[in-house]
Amino acid sequence: MSNTNINSKNEVVFVEKMAGGPVGHDSKRDVEVQSRFSPAEEAKIRRRVSYRVVPILGLMLGIALMDRSNVANAAIAGMRDDLDMRVGYRYALMTSCFFITYVLCQAPMTWLTRFLGPRIVLPGVVFAWGILIIGFGFAKTWTTLVGLRLVLGILEAGFFGGGVYLLQTWFTRGELSKHFTVYYFIGAVISSFSGILAYGFMQMNGASGVKGWEWIFIMEGIVTIAIAIGGYFCLPKFPDQEVNKPSFRFLKPDECQYVIDLLTADRDDYQAEKFAWALYLAPARRPEIWAFGIMQFCTCTASYAYIFYLPIILRDSLKFSLAAAQCLVAPPYAAAGFLMMACAWYADKYKTRAPVLVFNCCIALVGLPMVGFASNPWVRYAGVFLAVAAINSNIPLLMAYQATNIRGQWQRAFCTATMTGLGAIGGISGSLVYRTQDAPNYVPGVVAVIVCVGVVAVMGTTLIFYLRHCNKQADEGKRIIHGSPEFRYTP
């Protein structure tokens, strides 16, 4: 393919030399990869990578989501009254302050994961915040919780961005959507049972003089520490690190080299380039990177609005009992998993992203008015099912959308940090959407979430046409995408 007559305005600033032939099954490199192992052996290697990387990361994600949102369960279990948090914005401030440090620390913590390795950083930060969560159970003032959640934001910043980054480095672009979905599905299902666990821990009320809501934090902190210890023994390193120093009972060097060859044939970026600020910041010039980030911001605003307030909505607005409000949080998130898996299968099979994203937005736009404006509580709860399922299905899809449309390790690190950071800012706005003064129906909050979902639908539709236009220019030799004449966007 000709790459002459390229105008600098139409060309990605960073140009990386290709190590192999054209991307795809017709390339010479891909033929060499396929002949190294039998098809059964290749499938076994890929399964081993999937089973070693995805489940433990999903388990740690579930603990992360549970630990950042367990304040909602503690709130209806008596914490708001004991710590005088029904005044003004105290509860909203306590939930949202987490995201201040979470946003600020995304980039440095993602860089630290690349520098020290995921097996050290990821379980390490999970272990540290498990100890911190236990400390939540001994807080005597709401301001103490604010300080603890600021520290929690620093630690959790080291997990989510690093975990997403690790997933991207082990799988080809055609595999990312289903692996991101399984990763997020495991996390969402585990975190969805936080209400049921919280209700169980509440029954310890009075044991050793500790209140029920305090036991929620103490017991969940202990579970977090146990998961972190398991993560240290299960998580692998990055592929370029594994091939030189294999992890215990994982891949042999030749098997790891097979995975690396697959990644090289797919996008040729398995190994980190020498760090340079110009290289790291190059993606900041591309509009699609910020479009992904803005869509993540809007989606996370909607998602966190329900994470932080769904138990309160069920209790105060829909008038369910305390036990029902704790337990009815789980079913919508569990149901979201089925939609996630269906979307991931379709997106990977047909190599598309944005149309599925827009489809989910349409489902959410049906459910959200039911939540906000129906009179029957069970109809409103049905709307919660639609809204929660569709909104949460878009989160792993957006991760895959971005990951399949970037190339290069340091650029991947920048884009992951940017997208996660903007998603965290969405967490701040999401924690402020359902205001205390709008109880019990929270109509302004529902309208805000509807607007966010509408923005995602519009931007997703726009990106379809923009990325197809870029691919057409590349086919005509008028543009080189990410420094590779063979690279094409996945609209």
Question: Could you report the average pLDDT, rounded to the nearest whole number?
Answer: 84
- Can you summarize the main beta sheet? none
The tally of structural domains comes to 1
State the name of the first-level CATH class: Mainly Alpha
Task: List low-pLDDT spans.
Answer: 1-32
Number of helices: 20
Secondary-structure arrangement, i.e. CATH architecture: Up-down Bundle
* Class based on secondary structure composition and strand pairing: mainly alpha
Strand content: under 5%
Order of helices and strands: HHHHHHHHHHHHHHHHHHHH
Terminus-to-terminus distance: 21 Å
Number of strands: 0
Which superfamily, in CATH terms, is the homologous superfamily? MFS general substrate transporter like domains
By CATH, the topology is: Growth Hormone, Chain: A
Tell me the helix content.
over 70%
Radius of gyration: 23 Å
GO cellular component, one term: membrane
Membrane topology: Multi-pass membrane protein
Keywords: Membrane, Transmembrane, Transmembrane helix, Transport
Pfam family, one: MFS_1
